[in-house]
Amino acid sequence: MNQDDLEKAAIETRSVHAGNSLDPETGAVMPPVYQTSTYAQRKPGLDPKYEYSRSGNPTRDRLQDCLASLECAQYALSFSSGMAAIDAVASLLEPGDHVLASRDLYGGTYRLFTKHFSRYQITFDFVDMRDVDTVKNALKENTKIVWLETPSNPLLTLCDIEVLSLAVKEHSDKCLVVVDNTFATPVLQNPLNLGADIVCHSVTKYVGGHSDVIGGALAFSRDDLQEKLYFQQYARGAVSAPWDCYLTLRGIKTLAIRMERHCANAEKIAAYLFGHDKVKKVHYPGLSVHPQHELAKKQMKNFGGMISFELDSDLEISINFVSTRRFFTLAESLGGVESLIEHPASMTHASIPAEERRKIGLKDGLIRLSVGIENVEDLLSDLEEGLNYI
Ligand SMILES: *Cc1c(COP(=O)(O)O)cnc(C)c1O
Asked: Which class for 72: exposed (0-12), middle (13-18), buried (19 or more C-beta within 10 A)?
């Protein structure tokens, strides 16, 4: 497959072929795992393409080419975790800089910003990104990054990437717009095409898709960002290992088809929960009652596999509900082929102080589903069993 032919191909085709140049030595169809730390050199000082696997590895290069193609980017960098990718971007900041971030942010990102980077005289504000005027008013002269997460975790709120990117660029051409695209995946949403500067992913989730690897990625198209972020990748050293790159590439081959099933199953489950009298509230952008359903239709190709909801009952019953499902495993993380269920207030979002959680509307009884690719009738009957018990 000539990689140039791929540029205009659909995402289903790119997720199978992108980055997968045939092995020149054997013609192997799958990428070899270059499990090596170093590379023999012919003579000192020739500046070979590969010299040490922290600075470059052919398996990682294939994954990076693939990720760039999926996000319609010129460049992608692969990291040992989603947090390592986020850390690399935040490491571009300097003392005195300010960051404006979504109010309902992934717990780990919130922790990294407020507990680590705040020690370097970098300040953070967390605002409701649904409203462009709120964002405009919160932009400061020293704002260097606007950090968006859409759909957000766990409340599935959206923000308008295109409108916000425009507003930020009007304010300052020195301010980067970064979008955490983990929930949507490149199959459903391409932030760079909407004006963002950098896309980040926890590839641990949908991109890898099989709950067997921790990884992260950045994608972007500006040459200056490639220079600066490649420096972060190789100087700080949080690179992904060859085997993890291979597993991620293997997972990506089915990304488009997996997303189809994740979305179809989630849409049915969200509709079922919405119609159930023991369910107080359902957060899913595919529901026509979702406050940003129109934006979801404009910005995304489909509505994703994540749902959160509140039961019309007390906390104890919610805890019991998440602990007793048959097909939904009680676990953190998301985006794998298997369905997962969790309780954000005590699990994934416990690092956000209770008062902050209340402010953003993250109720103590909220339950989050990562809807897998199982048969949807099995998933529905499992949920029904739990709801009947209440
Ligand atoms: C999981 C996740 C991260 C962090 O990624 P890791 O691979 O766990 O380090 C960041 N953002 C979002 C939205 C996530 O779901």
From this structure: middle
